[in-house]
Write a structure and sequence with these properties.
By secondary structure, the chain is an alpha+beta fold. The chain contains 18 helices and 21 strands. The protein has helices at 2-32, 68-71, 118-123, 125-136, 167-173, 180-198, 228-240, 243-248, 257-276, 286-303, 314-323, 331-371, 374-381, 404-410, 413-431, 460-476, 516-526, 537-544, and strands at 42-45, 51-53, 56-57, 74-75, 79-81, 98-102, 105-114, 145-151, 154-160, 213-215, 221-223, 389-400, 437-442, 445-450, 479-480, 483-487, 491-504, 510-514, 533-536, 554-562, 566-573. Strands 12, 13, 14, 17, 18, 19, 20 and 21 form an eight-stranded mixed beta sheet that branches. A seven-stranded antiparallel beta sheet has the order 5-2-1-6-7-9-8. Strand 13 and strand 14 form a beta hairpin. The N and C termini lie far apart (165 Å). Mean pLDDT is 79; it is low at 47-88 and 577-581.
Length: 581
């Protein structure tokens, strides 16, 4: 009995290591199960644009852990599927591996080691622990590991392939990223990703470059191959441990974690050199850009220091980048902020331009009002038909310069034009003070109407009479610069009655008055005298009927012959002023 018990304990003692090893393998197997990928779902794009579907099924069972022969992968025949034009050609980089798709996601596949079996991989806990650690890395600036597979004794990993390609390719071919703020944002993403790597379990990157910094569809940097150097070093060290290799090819001394981290910092400096050494970088705000250039150059020089111990750590680099606000916003947020700022600036610009436009339109309106009545202007703008209008009562004033023919014969055209501009401008200032409308000027003739186009009851006669007195005084004050001794004395005629008014023409339209009243007013002017105001009887009657006519004084001229009218009594309007002879 004692012998049986002793034998039992002996068996247990001897089998203990095997049991523990089996349990360890089972645990590792369970940890790796979610990382093993079905080859049927991996489609690799070749250089000719076709795709190769590798049907490799990984069978995981308890027996997989017990014999090498059962652990080998069963490989099916490769099938060629035409894919020319069906898939967008992906950017390829030697360090990244081959572009592929996995479950409708863009991925890279990269061979890490050859001569590897699943049993060997599982038996060495350092391999499996490292690959599990890599699969658990999660950061917005790191490319995710999807899984792994073994094929032809080659260990291959599958990891994320962001949509916009590498930073290196983007800087070389996308002019959109010539903007310095966008590049600073991307640099901030890289520094954040490296800081996370250095403070995680994998401790260093080892292969950092602009070629493996990838941009996703939101233009955020996703650093690829994080931890792959660590895993590759372990796999290479396994091959160098064989007796033959150890005897004839002594293993190279591996770098320390600190040395790897210092190399990563130097890689950041090289990336900064690529990003900001380009002369095409755009600088919107020159003063801010100059300050940022100095900060970036200082940071870059410290990262590229020849003495590795003088280079900053990832933590100090990340703090410096944060203080400089390299990645305070993502590229999308930065662009949205710019769009919003541009929209606000545009709104202000539009408001300013609108005010300027309104001011210019006001000037145009003021000019048009001098040429056409306001009501006519509105109708012309609205492309409305303008019908002739009949005014039952209105007063018309005609004025000319009797000495004008003498001036024309004695002086140059420029001097005559200067004279006409001076006297008509003087008349325009006077008319602006009365309820009257300037109709037109023809050579020395000046035509004014009241009660047209704005009706003013029976006041139009009084308004024009007062206006005539002022025009006579204004005309007498104008002299010819070439002949200062000549006093200009306007001849004025006034008549009241029925008037028809309307716009004539479509190009340079004119507001014209028609009717017998116009003809008679013209006759009053032509039958008058220099420095005199010749008034018809109808105008005198309307003016005297007004309540505030105390300032007007009329003198009968007697009967005169008017063409088409016969003998008509007319009047001189003297006003309160002393006549000028």
């Amino acid at each position: 009995m004692q012998i049986a018990v002793g034998v039992t304990w002996l068996i247990i003692a001897l089998s203990g290591p095997f049991i523990r090893r089996y349990i360890r393998l089972k645990v590792l197997h369970s940890r790796l199960a979610h990382l093993l990928i079905d080859h049927k779902k991996v489609i690799i794009t070749d250089q000719q644009g076709s795709v190769t579907v590798e049907n490799t099924l990984l069978q995981l069972s308890d027996t997989n852990l017990r014999s090498d022969s059962q652990l080998e992968l069963s490989l099916s025949q490769k099938e060629q599927v035409p894919g020319s034009g069906a898939m967008k050609k992906a950017e390829s980089h030697p360090s990244l591996g081959l572009p592929a798709t996995y479950r409708d996601q863009d991925v890279y596949v990269k061979v890490l080691a050859h001569g590897m079996s699943l049993k060997t991989f599982v038996k060495d806990s350092s391999y499996s622990a490292t690959i599990v650690t890599l699969s658990r890395l999660r950061h917005q600036c790191l490319a995710e590991l999807h899984g792994m597979y073994l094929h032809d004794s080659a260990l291959t990993v599958v990891f994320e392939r962001p949509a916009k390609g590498s930073l290196k390719n983007t800087l070389e071919h996308n002019s959109f990223f010539h903007d310095v703020d966008l590049r600073l944002t991307l640099l901030g993403n890289i520094i954040e990703g490296l800081h996370f790597i250095h403070t995680s379990e994998i401790k260093y990157h080892g292969e950092l470059s602009s070629g493996i910094c990838l941009l996703n569809d939101r233009y955020t940097i996703r650093v690829a191959l994080a931890g792959f150097q660590r895993l590759t070093s372990k796999l290479q060290a396994r091959g160098e441990r064989s007796g033959f290799r150890r005897l004839f090819f002594p293993a190279k001394k591996d770098l320390t974690t600190s040395e790897y981290q210092q190399n990563d910092i130097r890689a950041i400096g090289l990336i900064m050199q690529e990003m900001f050494g380009d002369q095409t970088v755009k600088k919107d705000n020159q003063s801010v850009a100059n300050r940022m250039e100095r900060d970036v150059e200082t940071l870059m020089r410290s990262c590229l220091d020849q003495n590795p111990s003088n280079r900053p750590t990832s933590s100090s680099l990340q703090k410096r980048a944060t203080s400089l606000k390299f990645a305070s916003r993502s590229v999308v947020e930065l662009l949205m902020h710019r769009i919003q700022t541009h929209a606000e600036t545009l709104e202000q610009e539009v408001a300013l331009r609108t005010d300027e436009l309104i001011e210019e339109m006001k000037k145009v309106d003021d000019l048009l009002k001098e040429m056409l009545p306001i009501g006519i202007i509105q109708k012309l703008r609205n492309q409305e038909a303008i019908e002739a209008e009949l005014f039952e009562s209105g007063t018309i004033l005609f004025s000319d310069i009797p000495a004008f023919s003498h001036l024309v014969s004695q002086y140059t055209p420029n001097e005559v034009l200067a004279f006409l501009s001076q006297i008509h401008s003087m008349f325009d200032l006077v008319v602006a003070d009365f309820d009257a409308y300037k109709v037109e000027t023809i050579n020395d003739s000046y035509v004014v109407a009241s009660g047209i186009p704005q009706r003013n009851g029976e006041r139009h006669a009084l308004e024009v009479c007062k206006l005539a007195v002022r025009l006579r005084i204004a005309g007498a004050s104008v002299t010819v610069s070439a002949a200062a001794d000549i006093v200009v004395c306007p001849r004025i005629g006034i008549n009241s009655g029925l008037v028809a008014a309307g716009v004539v023409g479509t190009r340079m339209p004119r507001y014209c008055l028609f009717g017998d009243t116009m003809n008679t007013a013209s006759r009053m002017e032509s039958h008058g005298a220099a420095n005199r105001i010749h008034v018809s009887g109808s105008t005198r009657s309307l003016a005297m009927a007004s309540s505030d006519n105390d300032s007007l004084k009329f003198t009968s001229r007697g009967l005169i012959t008017i063409k088409g009218k016969g003998q008509v009594e007319t009047f001189w309007l003297r006003g309160l002023e002393k006549p000028i002879h």
